[in-house]
């Protein structure tokens, strides 16, 4: 009796979830692993007593050219379309989910087998199949016919540099780079001082803030006046090793001065993204290693969630075609 081919996907961000969904639709048995507690990767959101914050991707920037119909279906769930400046400074048509950005990622997990709090530390190929080892358990997991990595290039390199067969893939990964970004969640302590304001301010880049998001002013937004501040790549690089407390207060003071409100907080918290947005992409939709190992992610095509989704779809199509040929 012939068994369905199996695929292990490392990373439950946009690329990994899209690849898993498409590969499973084409008859592959997929298992997704992620070191985090839930899906989404940089599509991160945080709920609070004042309302939700989107401290990862604040919205989903779309490419100007026509996109894959499968991608359009994935993004057609409760989102408003606005013309917004993304973190790189480019004005694009953008989707702003009615719920949190992460809620969209949670919908993409439906029907998938996902294992969270699984940190991959090693992988090996025995000549026929792939086996994976995670820090949370001693035994190897497998066998898998194919493996798709969707983690940031430095994390993939740390795993693949131990495998001589993946030398060429490692060379390509070394040329791909992400810029860091600090993001700050801020509830001003004097909400009466906050005027109506706009959903997005993008005129603070020279001061160190690429995007200033007024979360309660999103389409269908609710809750107290609150901001998510996304620092520029230059500011984040210069202050990368600051403590979260220092970074949060520095960015709050920059924003408060521009907004003309007191630099005081009822709630203030910062998150450091070491691999926030792509500064040097591979220029290919996905990468192919040896022995049925693939790599996908926004670092292949560009800096947006849509780029990551496109990469995941392309990798899924390629590995499904390869498995069909070997069946």
Features:
Polyamine Oxidase, Chain A, domain 2, FAD/NAD(P)-binding domain, oxidoreductase activity, 2 domains, Amino_oxidase, 17 strands, 327 residues, six-stranded mixed sheet, five-stranded antiparallel sheet, alpha+beta
What does this structure look like?
The chain has 327 residues and is α+β, with helices and mostly antiparallel strands. It folds into 2 domains: 6-39 and 109-176 and 281-326, FAD/NAD(P)-binding domain; 51-101 and 179-280, Polyamine Oxidase, Chain A, domain 2. 28% of the residues lie in helices and 28% in strands. It is built from 9 helices and 17 strands. The strands form 4 sheets. The chain has a 6-stranded mixed sheet with strand order 6-2-1-10-17-16, covered by helices on one side. It has a 5-stranded antiparallel sheet with strand order 12-13-14-11-15. It has a 3-stranded antiparallel sheet with strand order 3-5-4. Helix 4 (153-160) packs antiparallel against helix 5 (167-174). The longest helix is centred in the last third of the chain and has 22 residues, at 305-326. The radius of gyration is 20 Å and the shape is elongated. 46% of the residues are buried. The model has no long low-confidence stretch (mean pLDDT 92).
Short structural description:
With about 325 residues, this protein is an alpha+beta fold. It folds into two domains: about 150 residues, FAD/NAD(P)-binding domain, CATH 3.50.50.60; about 150 residues, Polyamine Oxidase, Chain A, domain 2.
């Amino acid at each position: 009796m012939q068994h369905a081919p199996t695929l292990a996907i490392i990373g439950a961000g946009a690329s990994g979830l899209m690849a898993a969904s498409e590969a499973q639709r084409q008859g592959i048995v997929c298992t997704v692993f992620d070191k985090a507690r839930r899906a989404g990767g940089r599509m991160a959101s945080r709920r609070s007593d004042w309302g939700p914050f989107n401290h990862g991707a604040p919205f989903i920037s779309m490419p100007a050219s026509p996109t894959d119909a499968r991608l359009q279906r994935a993004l057609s769930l409760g989102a408003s379309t606005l013309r917004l400046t993304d973190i790189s400074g480019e004005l694009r048509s953008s989707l702003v989910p009615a719920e949190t950005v992460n809620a969209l990622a949670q919908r993409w997990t439906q029907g998938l087998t996902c294992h969270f709090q699984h940190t991959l530390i090693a992988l090996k190929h025995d000549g026929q199949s792939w086996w994976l080892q995670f820090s949370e358990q001693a035994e190897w997991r497998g066998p898998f016919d194919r493996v798709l990595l969707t983690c940031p290039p430095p994390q993939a390199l740390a795993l693949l540099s131990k495998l001589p067969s993946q030398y060429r893939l490692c060379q390509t990964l070394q040329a791909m780079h992400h810029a860091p970004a600090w993001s700050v969640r801020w509830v001003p302590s004097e909400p009466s001082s906050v005027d109506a304001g706009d959903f997005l301010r993008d005129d603070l880049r020279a001061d160190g803030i690429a995007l200033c998001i007024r979360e309660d002013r999103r389409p269908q937004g609710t809750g107290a006046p609150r901001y998510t501040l996304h620092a520029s790549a230059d500011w984040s690089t210069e202050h990368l090793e600051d403590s979260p407390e220092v970074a949060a207060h520095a960015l709050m003071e920059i924003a408060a001065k521009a907004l003309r409100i007191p630099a005081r907080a009822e709630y203030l918290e910062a998150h450091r993204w070491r691999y926030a947005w792509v500064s040097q992409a591979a220029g290919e939709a996905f990468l192919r290693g040896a022995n049925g190992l693939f790599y996908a992610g926004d670092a292949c095509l560009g800096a947006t969630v849509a780029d990551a989704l496109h990469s995941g779809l392309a990798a899924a199509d390629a590995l499904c075609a390869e498995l069909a040929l070997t069946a």
